[in-house]
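Table 4 source record.
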Amino acid sequence: MPIIINLDVMMARRKMSLNELSEKVGITLSNLSILKNGKARAIRIETLEAICNALDCQPGDILEYRKDNA
């Protein structure tokens, strides 16, 4: 998949646990885990906004596009 989710990287930089982010954003642990592990098929803009607000970052810090070499 050419879209890479760097949520774990940003969480580590901010020293924030999955539980803490879940509470701040208002997303269940299981849904946040799916997103963190790159298994999500979509993300709502308001969810991305809440995550960026909680982690004090930009969407580009979380989402990365890598060209598929196939």
